Amino acid sequence: MNNKYRMKVFLIWILVLSVSTQVYSQGNEEKVGHLRIQDSNQTHWKQIDDFSVLLDWGFYPEPIDLRFRIGNLPEESKTEFLIFPWSLLDSVQVCDLKGDCLQAGFIHPVNEWLVPGIFPVFPLRKFLENSSEINIRIQSRNYILSEVRLVSAEELYSISTVYSGIVFSLLALVIVQIAYLINSYIRLRSKWILYQILFSFGIGLTFLFVSGIGSRYVFPGFGFPLSLGKKIMIGYLIISGTLWVSHFLKIRQNFKPVWYFYNVVNILTAIMIALSFTKFPRQFVSRSFTIFYLAVTGTAIVLSLVATKRKTIQTRWFVLGMFSLLAIEILNIISYKAFFSFDGKSFLFFIAFFVPVNIFLTSRSVRTRIRELEHEISLRREELRNFHSDKTSSDGLAKKKSTIIGINVDDTLARLNKLLDEDKIYLEEELRISDLAAVLGLSVHQVSELLNQVLNISFPDLLKKYRIEEAKRIILNDPSANILDLAFSVGFQSKSSFYDSFKKQTGLTPQEFKKSASPDPID
C-alpha cells in the first residue's frame, strides 16, 4: 500500500509537469498585441517580454498608480484579457481614461468580479474602445510581487485549466496524506500524529487559499485580505509544526532547553498573529516569521541528527523532510523571482516539484516512526507477559541469561531514582521504556530486567506508581484541583485510566481521597 502511494505521488507529479510545460509552450506561440508600462523609472518593475511585466514594490502599503499601453491589436481581437497570475494582491483596479473602472483582488468577493477566477482577470474590450491606454491602481499590505500579463481568451483558458489542475492534484496528495495520518492516529493514539495532522491540514489550507482556489470555489462570496490571512496561516503552521516536531523528537524529555525555546517561539508567534490584525508593520511580522521558521527548522534538523546518532529514533527521512522545508524558505529569501525569472512555467514547476517531494519524505518519516511505535507496543506487551511469567516460575528465572551482568546496578538505580524523584520523567505522557533506556544508556531488555528482577515491578506499574504519588501530593497541597486536569498533568492519557490506577493503589477514588484530605469542618 505504501509503495503504491509513493508511485502515485510521482506519477501525478510527472504528469502535471509535462502538461504544464506543453500547454504553456503552446500558449506562448499566440503573440497578439503587446503590453508596455508608461514609466521610464524601472526601479520597481521589469519588462519580461512583449506580453508581460513584473511589478516588485515589496512592502508598500500606499496605493500604486500605473499607466499601461496596449498596442498592435488586430481589429478583430477585442477578446484579450489583462491578468495578474499568481498574485497575492488585496485589491486591483483597472480604469479607462474616462474613469470607468473594474476591480478585483482578495479583499473583494470573487463573485463580484466581472470575470470570477483564481486570480484577477480584466477583459479589455470596454477599456480599448476609445484609447489604447489604461490606468491600474494596486493596493496591498502583503509583499507586492506580481506579474501583469496580456493574454488571449484561449491562453486564459489554458492557464486557468493547467493551474487549477496542478493545484487540485497537489491538494489531493495532501488530503491522502491527512487521511493516512488520521488512520494512524486512530490505531496508535500518539500525540505527535495528531499535531502532524494539524500541520498537514494547515499546509493544505494555505495552499488552497494562497493559490486562489479557495476564494474561487469554497468561499466566493467572502472577501478577506490575503495579506492578513497569509500571516495567520503561516503563524498557524509555525505553532502546529513546532508542536509536531517537539513530540516527534521527544524534545521535552531528551532536549529540555530546546523545549523551552520552542514554547517561547510559539508565544512570540501568537503575538505576531495578533499584531497582524493591527496597523503594525507587516514587514516586521514577515521577517519575524522567517526567523522563527528558520530557527525551528534548523534546530529540528540538528536534534534529529543527534537522535539518529543516539539511535533513540530513526529519523533519516525526517531529516530529509526538514531539509526540504528549509530549502523552500531559503529559496524564498533569496527570491525565486531572480532565480526563475518569475515566468509562469517556472513557478508551476517550483510548486509541482516541492509539494510532492516534501509529502513523500514526510510520509516516509511518519511510516518509519509508526513502525517504531508498533515495535515498542509489542515490546511492552512482551515485557508484561515476561513479568507475569517470571512471578509464577522462579525456576525459569534461574535458567535465563542475565542481560545486566557487567553494568553497575547501584549507579544505574541511583540515576533512575534521580530521573524519577528530581526530574519527574514520569510526567511525560508518552514516555516509553525505550526512552528511559536511551536516557540511562541501556538497552530496552536491560531496563526491563533491571525493573523486573531488581525492583520487582514492571515499567507500566512503575509509571503508575509515581504518577499516583504525584497526584496525591498535588491534592494534599491543593484540594480544589480539578480531577481531569490533574489526570493529564501527571501523565495519564485518560480519566478512566487515572481513576482505575488511583483506586487500585490507594483503595480510594480521587474524590474520596480529596474528601479525606480536606480538614474537618469546625462546628
Automatic annotation (TrEMBL):
Transmembrane segments: 162-181, 193-213, 233-251, 258-278, 284-306, 318-340, 346-363
Keywords: DNA-binding, Membrane, Transcription, Transcription regulation, Transmembrane, Transmembrane helix
Entry keyword Transferase: no
InterPro entries in UniProt: 7TMR_DISM_rcpt_extracell_dom1 (IPR011623), Homeodomain-like_sf (IPR009057), HTH_AraC (IPR018060), HTH_AraC-typ_CS (IPR018062), Tscrpt_reg_AraC-type_HTH (IPR020449)
Gene3D superfamilies: Homeodomain-like
GO molecular function: DNA-binding transcription factor activity; sequence-specific DNA binding
SMART domains (UniProt xref): HTH_ARAC (SM00342)
Pfam families xrefs: 7TMR-DISM_7TM, HTH_18
Tagged with keyword Transmembrane helix: yes
Location of the HTH araC/xylS-type domain: 417-516
PANTHER family linked: ARAC-FAMILY TRANSCRIPTIONAL REGULATOR
Protein name: AraC family transcriptional regulator
